[in-house]
């Protein structure tokens, strides 16, 4: 059974991740932390196969802490969790030595796939993040900003611009209200991600 170190500040999220992983029969969440303060010490003193680390839980120095984790436990794989599909953040996380990047709105199936992939020595990125990265690869520098949004993000943005409410948009597009709220929060974010180095 593979040992998991889980760093996530919300108890209910830790419970969910633990349940998802342990029901596979392949993983044991051996240690849980609610913040980044004890992360390095725990990784130095105990052996884990994979660390699942919520970037917001470990604070503003998350990229630095990932680099330190890699240095102190080079055989341990690191799977970063993030609230948003931020390509710039994903690049930084991979640059720091993480093996995977998963958004918190991923499915249980995707979380398990990500853990399997990183433990097999592969890199893993949530489909949402990959899609956002791919959309920007072939765009000329002077492409309109809306070209950097996914088709679904464009639909939601247009509906919001027309003054439609979140619940109406969700119902009409067959989405969850939370998903529409997330897209609403992202409406300015893709532009920031694309132009950051």
Describe the structure.
The chain is of the alpha/beta class. The protein has 2 domains: 2-130, 3-Layer(aba) Sandwich (Rossmann fold); 139-195, Arc Repressor Mutant, subunit A, CATH 1.10.10. The protein contains 10 helices and 6 strands. The radius of gyration is 18 Å and the shape is globular. It starts with a strand and ends with a helix. The model is unreliable at 190-197 (pLDDT under 50).
Give a brief rundown of this model.
This protein is of the alpha/beta class and 197 residues long.
Supply the key terms.
single chain; Rossmann fold; six-stranded parallel β-sheet; Arc Repressor Mutant, subunit A; globular; 10 helices; 2 domains; 197 residues; alpha/beta
CATH homologous superfamily descriptor of the largest domain: Response regulator
> What is the oligomer described by this structure?
single chain
Structural class: alpha/beta
Q: Which H/E pattern describes the elements?
A: EHEHEHEHEHEHHHHH
SSE order and pairing:
Elements: E1 2-7, H1 11-22, E2 27-33, H2 39-45, E3 50-54, H3 62-72, E4 77-82, H4 87-95, E5 100-103, H5 108-119, E6 124-125, H6 127-137, H7 151-161, H8 166-173, H9 177-186, H10 189-195
Parallel strand pairs: 1-2, 1-3, 3-4, 4-5, 5-6
Helix pairs in contact: 2-3, 7-9, 8-9
Domain Response regulatory: 3-119
GO biological process, one term: regulation of DNA-templated transcription
Modified residues (4-aspartylphosphate): 54
């Amino acid at each position: 059974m593979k040992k998991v170190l889980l760093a996530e500040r919300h108890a209910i999220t830790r419970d969910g991740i633990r349940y998802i992983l342990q029901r596979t029969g392949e993983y044991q969440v051996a240690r849980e932390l609610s913040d980044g303060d004890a992360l390095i010490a725990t990784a130095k003193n105990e052996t884990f196969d994979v660390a699942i680390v919520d970037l917001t839980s470990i604070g503003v120095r998350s990229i630095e802490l990932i680099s330190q984790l890699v240095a102190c436990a080079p055989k341990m794989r690191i799977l970063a969790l993030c609230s948003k599909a931020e390509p710039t953040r994903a690049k930084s996380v991979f640059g720091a030595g993480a093996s995977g990047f998963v958004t918190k709105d991923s499915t249980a199936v995707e979380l398990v796939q990500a853990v399997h992939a990183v433990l097999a020595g592969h890199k893993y990125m949530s489909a949402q993040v990959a899609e956002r990265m791919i959309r920007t690869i072939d765009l000329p520098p002077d492409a309109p900003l809306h070209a950097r949004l996914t088709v679904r993000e464009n639909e939601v943005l247009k509906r919001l611009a027309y003054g439609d409410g979140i619940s109406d948009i969700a119902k009409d597009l067959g989405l969850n209200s939370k998903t529409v709220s997330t897209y609403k929060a992202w409406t300015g974010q893709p532009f920031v991600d694309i132009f950051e180095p």
